[in-house]
């Protein structure tokens, strides 16, 4: 009996230790995927012995991958939920480590031909919950508003729902699209469309100015406005790792937070945190 | 003339090229229109499929299978020096081994869970398929209020809201089975009832969790057998110290219920026998008070990882029968009721080693009758029997997570029983005059999706 036990433990241990981390895998937020790729390319050029593999899939998908051990780093455009933290804690006995790596103004897009230049947060909420269904109600043409948004595994979807819709459900007529680029593309082709997504993707369509409430001044999602907090729909972009980072992973994260890494944040269209 | 010819030739070529360019531009435009038409067609199809896909996305199917090999120190029905009275081997390690069988392969759990998650409402059905048959594990409805999204109601068959180990899923739990006290006091873990839960998503109240409900008190599969409903509740907390990657979680739990005796005979402590006819139909207390504490800490040692220390204690009064301290259930057969004051606890240590390995130790004690020594069990004049024997289990094991779906578990439990009165004349007690040979080794493979 004891021999069997010892043999099994030895065999299982051997399986466990043969793997050595030579590659850093990064998975998660689609909003952050371009930024993550730029970081990876620049870092691999600087440190050729390190391979950084980046994939998207959404913040929820990335967090699941962190919990089930299939990624080293998770990119997320929203903070981890309590239930996700609990899952991580029960599996690895750790709270995980949250690293704020960039800041993003969540832009609201309309078609270039749309005369609506600004909206309040309440108006945006009313539009996405179908209390406002015609552009005429917010100073636009007499036409039905066509809603575009993200899929529910996206951190952008969750952030927008929690912070703009105050937790209310999206209108069932909203067309869910896989990635902010797809939202931008759809709005650019739809005269009466409206969408939301990272400011970095906001090319080819017009970003509306957003007011905190009906009486406040409107601000666009510029670096100055996001940094000052004047733009009302802004958020941090995060990286999560399971344990205190060490070795190659720590060096990579330190580099991302260095002036060199943060310079790429600005180049991609987000806002540095340092 | 010499100059006219080349000019003519050049003009002809240029005209030809222009014509060719016109033709290819025309072709390109036609092809572009064709592709555009195809893309629009695909978009229309996708738009039609989207409502169906959105509905399908709400259906979440998950499950796991635990296939295992077990080897007992003694064969099932082990009776040691006794000439009769076989003892159970492996009874708390996934079910008793058959008589004269010392090892077995089995499917310990074969779960399939289907949930329809409509955000604020949820339908959950979970079945368990093993060599023993098919059984229902969960069947409940959850409704969350839409305003604060903090309060929810759950109704049906689901985990009893008591302590930590009950709600810690068998697929995620490190040890193959729950502690002996939980298996005894909460067989099947679940019950039929309704509970309210307060669980805030943010702010101060996200660090506390309150759940309480009323239940039949008969377990997950039996019908209600009396008019009393049992209250079960837990007030839990989690205190994260993010800077040092430490979390201290815990809670206190209460079970306040009763069972109806169908017998006039009621035993209390070791020697108190009450045979009043008034005991028939009388309700007897089933009261447990529990406390649990879990500590999670990420060790600052790169080749290791997080560690967890968990402890839980339950003390209370259990109305049960002579041979077991599982709760009393009045049936058609008249069964004397044994009311015992019990104490149970465990301490577990789990150490992550890198990403894929975990080492664990667990010490688990269940004393069904805290008022008497096991040495009095079987003694002349004592009413104490099998249900009064104290057990201590020390387990150690290793887990290797092969990938995101598969894990291997090797676990060895050393089980000790307190020795009963050496001169006992009870055949069923005779094997317990010594420490029965009931250590069990389990090797398990789990696939979870």
Task: Please provide a written account of the structure.
- Chain A has 274 residues and is of the alpha/beta class.
- Chain A is 38% helix and 23% strand.
- Chain A has helices at residues 2-17, 33-46, 59-68, 82-92, 121-128, 155-163, 180-189, 223-228, 247-256, 259-268; strands spanning 23-28, 51-57, 73-76, 97-110, 118-120, 146-150, 175-177, 193-198, 206-207, 209-211, 218-219, 234-241.
- Chain B is mostly beta strands.
- Chain B folds into two domains: 1-52; 63-448, Porin (Beta Barrel), CATH 2.40.160.
- In chain B, strands 1-2-3-4-5-6-7-8-9-12-13-14-15-16-17-18 form a 16-stranded antiparallel beta barrel.
- In chain B, strand 8 (230-241) and strand 9 form a beta hairpin.
- The longest helix of chain B has 54 residues, at 4-57.
- The model of chain B has no long low-confidence stretch (mean pLDDT 90).
- The chains are: A alpha/beta (274), B mainly beta (449).
- Chain A binds chain B through residues 1, 4-5, 8-9, 12-13, 15-17, 19, 68-70, 81-82, 85, 89-95, 97-98, 152, 167-169, 175-176, 242-244, 246-247, and chain B through 47, 50, 54, 57, 71, 73, 119, 146, 149, 168, 172, 199, 201, 206, 240, 242, 245-247, 296-298, 300, 302, 305-308, 350, 352-357, 398, 400-404, 408, 410, 412, 441, 443.
In short:
With 274 residues, chain A is of the alpha/beta class. In chain A, 38% of the residues lie in helices and 23% in strands.
Q: Which value, in Å, is the CA radius of gyration of chain A?
A: 21 Å
Mean pLDDT of chain B: 90
The total beta strand count of chain B reads 18
- β-strand percent of chain B reads 35-45%
Distance between the first and last residues' Cα of chain B: 86 Å
Largest sheet of chain B: 16 strands, antiparallel, barrel
Q: How large is the count of helical segments of chain A? A: 10
Question: How would a crystallographer describe the biggest sheet of chain A?
Answer: 9 strands, mixed
Number of strands of chain A: 12
CATH level-two architecture of the largest domain in chain B: Beta Barrel
Q: Give the strand order of the largest sheet of chain B, numbering strands 1, 2, ... along the chain.
A: 1-2-3-4-5-6-7-8-9-12-13-14-15-16-17-18
Termini separation of chain A (Å)?
59 Å
Most extensive interface: pair and counts? A-B, 37 and 46 residues
> What is the CATH-assigned architecture of the largest domain in chain A?
3-Layer(aba) Sandwich
The percentage of residues in β strands of chain A lies in 15-25%
What are the segments of chain B in which pLDDT stays under 50 over at least 5 consecutive residues? none
Along the chain, the helix and strand elements of chain B come as HEEEEEHEEEEEEEEEEEEE
Number of domains of chain B: 2
CATH class of the largest domain in chain A: Alpha Beta
- Molecular shape of chain A: globular
